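Hi there,

I know you've been waiting on this one. I reran it after we fixed the sequence typo, so this is the corrected version. Both the input and the resulting structure follow.
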Amino acid sequence: MKKIILSTLILTALYSCKKEGKKVETATDTAAVSKKTEPAVAAAFIKETSPEDVSKYLAKNNDTLYVTNFFATWCGPCMREIPHFKNKIQELKGKPVKFTFIDMDDKSEWNSAVKKFADENNLADHIILVDGKKLDQNFFKSNFKQWDGGSIPFTYMRKGAKTDELLGMITEEVLNEKINSFLK
């Protein structure tokens, strides 16, 4: 009886998570996301990039503070910390600080959940899509001291040669403290 109940629960969960058959394709030069079935709908709302380009971005060494947050729309702690980042984006507008959110959702979610999240939070110009299946252990070892990609959210900050890594959900107080330590 337990097996029948367990099987029914698993099937119900799988059925409720079933996605509609939307195909996602990526544009080659513009690195934009587009829908095959609706090409005119938000074709360039968020950029897709490669792990190699993310590594180059993370290694930028200049006077700008780069705050990079790895998140997913299904991640509760990720969603709870987004308002803190949005507040800092508004507060530091016009200053040498760049906020980037690297989405770790499955590609099948890019034109649905990720687009909805970006639209609702007015963050489309801050989000970069990366196919998580292309992120291997070499990516994590070569870019981070402590993060192995095993959990999110993860926030990486860099200004010049100074870096900081924060694994797990960040509070507004900690975010303010970390950013202020870079801007001194």
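Quick highlight: The chain has a mean pLDDT of 81.

Best,
R. S.
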